[in-house]
Amino acid sequence: MTIADTTEAGRLTLEGRHVRLEPLSPEHVPGLAAAASGPRDTYGFTWVPENEAAMRCYVAEALAMRDVGVAVPFATLHAASGVVLGTTRFGNIERWPWPEGNPNRREPDAAEIGWTWLTAAAQRTAVNTEAKYLMLRHAFEAWHVHRLCIQTDARNERSRRAIERLGATFEGIRRADRPASDGSVRSTAVYSIIEAEWPPVKAGLEARLGAGA
User: Fold this and answer.
1) pLDDT tens by residue, 112-140
2) Phi then psi for 10, rounded to 5 degrees?
3) Residue-wise over 151-179: b if at least 16 C-beta within 10 A, else e?
4) d(CA 114, CA 47)
5) What pTM was computed for the model?
6) Is the distance from CB of 178 to CB of 140 less than 8 angstroms?
7) Whole-angstrom Cα Rg for the chain
8) pLDDT (tens digit, 9 = 90+) per residue, 10-60?
C-alpha cells in the first residue's frame, strides 16, 4: 500500500489507496452536505448536520477547535475520485505538564479519534478501516502519543463492534457523560490503544487492508 503523509502550512494530509484525509475547510461544506443527504438511518447515535447551513456551522466549530490547538479535523474523500464521503478528526489533544527535559514528553501526549461519520455507501467499506489506520499510524509514529482514545455512545453496538475490530481495549462506560445526539443523556463507551499496543494493532489493520477489509 502506498501512503503519503504531508503537512502543508502546519496542516496535515493523510492519503492511502482508498481514502484521502485532507484539512477540513469551508470549501468542503457542499460536499459534506451532499454526503449527509442520503439515507440517515445509521446516524441515530451520531450528530450529522441535515442541511448546508447546519453543515457550515459544524465546520466552523471544528475549525475553531483547530485554531486553539485541541483538534485536527479532516474531510474524508474517496482517494481516486475526490468525492467527499464524510469527516473525522483528532480531538481532545492533550499536552501533559512534564518537567523540562523529561524523555516521556510528546507533542502531543494523547489524543482522541472521533467526530466520524460517512455517507451510507461508504460505511462498512475499506474507507473507514484505512482512515483509522492512517490516523493511528500518524498518532503513534509521527506524534508518538502515549495514548489514543476512541469513544462512542454506549448504545451504539455497531460502532462499538467496529472499534473493537480495530484492536482497541474497552476501558468501561462513563455514565451520564454528555448530551446525546437524540436529545437524551448519553453514557459513553470508552476504548483506547496505548503506545505499546500499536505494533500488533498495526499488523492487524494492515492484514485487514491487504485482504480488502
Assistant:
1) 999 999 999 999 889 999 999 999 999 99
2) 75, 10
3) bbbbebeebbebbeebbbeeeeeeeebee
4) 12
5) 0.93
6) no
7) 17
8) 489 999 999 999 999 999 999 999 999 988 988 989 999 999 999 999 999
Residue pair 144/111 in contact (Cβ under 8 Å)? The answer is: no
Domains and CATH numbers, the chain: 4-210 (3.40.630.30)
Secondary structure, 3-state, the chain: CCCEEEEECCEEEEECCCEEEEECCHHHHHHHHHHCCCCCHHHCCCCCCCCHHHHHHHHHHHHHHHHCCCCEEEEEEECCCCCEEEEEEEEEEECCCCCCCCCCCCCCCEEEEEEEEECHHHCCCHHHHHHHHHHHHHHHHHHCCCEEEEEEECCCHHHHHHHHHHCCEEEEEEEEEEECCCCCEEEEEEEEEEHHHHHHHHHHHHHHHHCCC
